[in-house]
Amino acid sequence: MTGTDNREGARPARRSAASEGACRGLGSRTAKQGASMLGAEAVVASLEAEGVTTVFGYPGGQAIKLYDALYGSKQITHVLARHEQGAVHMADGYARATGRPGVVMVTSGPGATNTVTGIATAYMDSVPLVVITGQVGRGVIGTDSFQESDIVGITMPVVKHSYLLQSIDELTRTIREAFHIAVTGRPGPVLIDIPSDVAGEEMVFEYPDDVSLPSYKPTYRGNAKQIRTACRLLEEAEQPLLYVGGGVVSSGATEELTALMDAMQVPAVVTLMGKGGVPASHPLNLGPVGMHGAKYSNMAMTEADLIIAAGARFSDRVTGRVSEFAPNAKIVHIDIDPAEIGKIRDADVPIVGDLKGVLAGMLECLAKAGAAPRDDQWVADIAAWRERYPFYHPNMAVNEEEDEIVPELVIAELGRQLDPDASIVTTEVGQHQMWAHQFLHRERPRTFLSSGGLGTMGFGFPAAIGAAVARPDATVVCIAGDGSFQMNSQEMATAAINGVPVKVMILDNRCLGMVHQWQKLFYGRRYSQTLLAPVPDFVKLAEAYGWEGERVEAPGEVAGAIARMLAAPGPYLLDVAISPEQNVYPMVAPGAALDNVMGAIDVAVGAVRTDVPAAPGSPRARMTGAPSGAASPCAKIDAQFGGRWEIDPEDTGARLGQDGSTVDVRPEDWKTLFRAGDEGKEDRR
Q1: pLDDT tens column, 281-329
Q2: What is the 3-state composition of the chain as percent helix, strand, coil, each rounded to the nearest 5?
Q3: Report field, pTM of the whole predicted structure over 0.85
Q4: Fewest CB atoms within 10 Å of the CB: 338, 386, 595, 683?
Q5: Which among 313, 292, 309, 280 is positioned nearest to 445, based on CA atoms?
Q6: Complete domains list, the chain, with CATH
Q7: Residue from 90, 199, 172, 13 nearest 461 by CA
Q8: Helix, coil or strand: residue 565
Q9: Confidence at 509, pLDDT banded by 50, 70, 90
Q10: Are the CB atoms for 521 and 614 separated by under 8 Å?
Q11: Distance from C-alpha of 471 to C-alpha of 490, rounded to nearest angstrom
Q12: What is the DSSP string of 475-522?
């Protein structure tokens, strides 16, 4: 639930996960306080006291008492998944869409172990979950009893905290602590393992409002001296940059972040997890950065003299080769988790605290000092880079082959038809995920849900179901690949039976696209186990589950098909056929420096400007012994981008401004965007 709880005496809902962890529901004021009941009934009463309205799960022998108690709840709706992993991803999607903890209930043994991937996914992306697992009776724990597994031990590295209940007296306090830990500080999953004999004991229900955890005291208020130091560096910087991660979403700091961008004219690059935390329409939002980020975003990161990392953790997918990352920049690192600061890149100014509060402190400090942007040259430079190295080139549409659908244009068309204020997009993992990050604009936080840290195939579809359950007012679309979708396609039954009108758009290239792309570029086209047979027929699969479905194979069919999908009252599957030869560009090769971008469009030469690793004369070509005249393995994406390869010795076609050029942009259209030469550049650093 979101917004303000209007029930008499209820606390106002917190604005962000950086709260004190108070009960989100009635807490001790529940009518069940003081009543006698079984432990299993107390579990359900505790969830109700926390304000839980939805539980995702799958029953089993050691959870049967918990499910029997759940049967009588008038507050909680249970969503029966078809696999425990799917249940956790649904709860994850629910949590990401709302900021409230997702709740999962499963049985012991294989039921519990099936949750591990989902728990790890949530842990890597800082998503609050409470996972309740049934366990064998206390007397047989450790004896390899039927369907026994040490789920506490198994999940220890991927949970924020875990409990194995040893006494009925611990039950309500443990559940209260679990919810407190899940949503406070850096959010994350908490696991509670409940032996079946504890669930069957009698107790008097007493739910605590307060939590006493002396060893767990997250720091919310940033150090005032460090905030002042960060502000001074920002005032002095000539080329400052905000590096925005998922912390802006979990902290609810969009307003403060955009205010800082406006006040000091600081551009921002945004990670996959931070997408939506800065409105895509904001003129200073440079969008994706890193391995598949824009060339201009990566250039900004490389050329910046000050980087303010706002709730970001310097992932290798962002930094590229760390030794060459942002060589000219001082680093201000703001994070609520002290373990992240200095873990990968040393911070000149470390600030531990809630991002929302720290940014508010910076704004206040800058206002008191009368701070203003130092000059506008940095913003002008970046604007010029954005014009010269765009993600999208108009000739992508012009050169679209009649019988081949361009995936970037499919994503863009979906974005045009979606209402940004009433839609949520989830993704599976792979090429389609990166195309969505690049070409799908999001204006609000919690409207783009994707597995970032773990990169979990099979996440997006069940997460879309969870998001749709949480936000029935929103149109929820999962962008999937044919490989990822089959990881958890059984959850089509969950959507159909529960009347969840989720939409799935598959970019279907009949291969494991991202690994296939790496094999093409870096492994000599040795496609080991990445080519998928043309099964199943996804439209027939949709029909089997009671969904509507259709397949499109021609560019002219795409817009109408998307419109039909979005207009459908129930679940809908759209299978979009694309070529396995399509690649995600730009790209920074694994282990390369962030500014070594391949496949970037350069309108200045009317081509894709790149140093393809296997191009003639390149280090990769010398290393692999490729003949000097060998063609680039990427040459076939020429039509994809509407340009020619600058490095292709056989390319003698017309260049920009020459007769016969197919490129619309004239030299004078871009040259005026740049200063004459680089005079004074060294002085400005």
Answers
A1: 999 999 999 999 999 999 999 999 999 999 999 999 999 999 999 999 9
A2: 35, 15, 45
A3: yes
A4: 683
A5: 280
A6: 27-205 (3.40.50.970), 224-388 (3.40.50.1220), 394-577 (3.40.50.970)
A7: 90
A8: helix
A9: very high
A10: yes
A11: 22
A12: EEEEEEEHHHHTTSGGGHHHHHHTT---EEEEEE-SB-HHHHHHHHHH
User: Taking 80 as the threshold, does the pLDDT of residue 8 lie above it?
Assistant: no
Report how far residue 430's alpha carbon sits from residue 443's, in angstroms, rounded to the nearest whole number.
23
pLDDT digits (tens, 9 = 90+) for 228-286: 999 999 999 999 999 999 999 999 999 999 999 999 999 999 999 999 999 999 999 99
Here the contacts of 644-648 (C-beta below 8 Å, separation 24 or greater) are 644/606, 644/607, 644/608, 645/607, 645/608, 645/610, 645/612, 646/602, 646/605, 646/607, 646/608, 646/609, 646/610, 647/610, 647/611, 647/612, 647/615, 647/616
Q: Is the pLDDT of residue 611 over 80?
A: no
- What are the φ and ψ backbone dihedral angles of 47, each rounded to 5 degrees? -60, -40
DSSP 518-562: HHHHHSTT--TT-BPPS-S-HHHHHHHTT-EEEEE-SGGGHHHHH
CB atoms inside a 10 Å sphere around CB 535? 10
The answer for 3, left when phi > 0, alpha when psi is -120 to 50, beta otherwise, is: left
Using only C-alpha atoms, what is the Rg of the chain? 26
Measure Cα distances from 552 to 404, 435, 537, 560, 599 in Å.
10, 19, 13, 10, 28
Angle between helices 558-567 and 407-417 (to 10 degrees): 40
- Kindly report the number of other CB atoms within 10 A of residue 108's CB atom: 25
Distance set, CA 50 to CA 54, 99, 218, 245, 370 (Å): 11, 14, 21, 29, 45
- Give the β-pairing of 572-577 and 161-164: unpaired
- Strand-pairing partners, residue 160, are none
Per residue, what are the HEC states of 292-328? Answer: CCCHHHHHHHHHCCEEEEECCCCCHHHHECHHHCCCC
pLDDT at 606: 62
* Closest-CA residue to 122 (of 98, 90, 151): 90
- Per-residue DSSP letter, 411: H
Give the pair of three-digit tokens for residue 67: 């499910």
**Beta carbons of 572 and 504 less than 8 angstroms apart:** yes
Of 32-41, 506-515, 531-540, 634-643, least confident by mean pLDDT is 634-643
Distance CA 295, CA 596 (A): 9
| 613 in Cβ contact with 588 (< 8 Å) | no
User: Residue 152's pLDDT band (boundaries 50, 70, 90)?
Assistant: very high
Token pair 């956790």 is found at 88
Buried b (16+ CB within 10 A) or exposed e, 411-446: bbbbbeebebeebbbbbbbbbbbbbbbbbbbbebbb
Q: Is 349 in contact with 230 (CB distance < 8 Å)?
A: yes
Convert 242-253 into a string of H (helix), E (strand) and C (coil). Answer: EEECCHHHHCCC
Comparing CA positions, the residue from 295, 310, 583, 300 lying closest to residue 434 is 583
Cα–Cα dist 163/598, whole Å: 48
Task: Put the strands of the sheet holding 644-645 in their side by side order.
Answer: 600-602, 607-609, 644-645
357 contact partners, CB below 8 Å, separation of at least 6: 18, 220, 221, 222
pLDDT digit string, tens, across residues 28-78:
999 999 999 999 999 999 999 999 999 999 999 999 999 999 999 999 999
